[in-house]
Design a protein that fits this description.
Helices cover 38% and strands 16% of the residues. The chain is an alpha/beta fold. The chain has a single domain, classed as Flavodoxin domain (Rossmann fold, 3-Layer(aba) Sandwich). Strands 1, 2, 3, 4, 5 and 6 form a 6-stranded parallel beta sheet that branches. The radius of gyration is 17 Å and the shape is globular. The N and C termini lie far apart (52 Å). One of its GO terms (molecular function) is FMN binding.
Length: 155
Amino acid sequence: MAYFSRSGNTRVVAGLIHRTLHTDLFEIRPATAYPEDYLETVEQARQERDSGRERPLETRVSNMSDYDTVFLGFPIWGETAPPVIRAFLSAHDLAGKALTPFITHGGYGTGNSLAVLASHAPKARLIPGFVMEADQERRTMNQVNDWLNGIKINS
């Protein structure tokens, strides 16, 4: 199983799958981390998405040929799979493998992420996956900003 998670939602799902099915676990990491700041990450991911640029990976799965099924977890960014997921798919031969996604999103669904999986792993068998709304980071940020915008502070 391979997953990418920024805020931890997808990591939680990956951990549950890992413990239940006794899978190997591989965290997909970009060679250069995304910014800590949520809005900076959103902007950088938008630029990568719009340019079609694939973010280099920190490392690859060295023994991908050992697996018949690949669970692939990721959050939806900008109505699609994060650029690092496209890079992961391009870097690994998934021909003949069952590709089973598990996706977290902030309320807008999977966007075109399934089309991304199909186009970047065309010889894999795409298995219906798990999709869950899990948007605590943006909701938290919006709630705090709303609160801060509504309070009066004498400076």
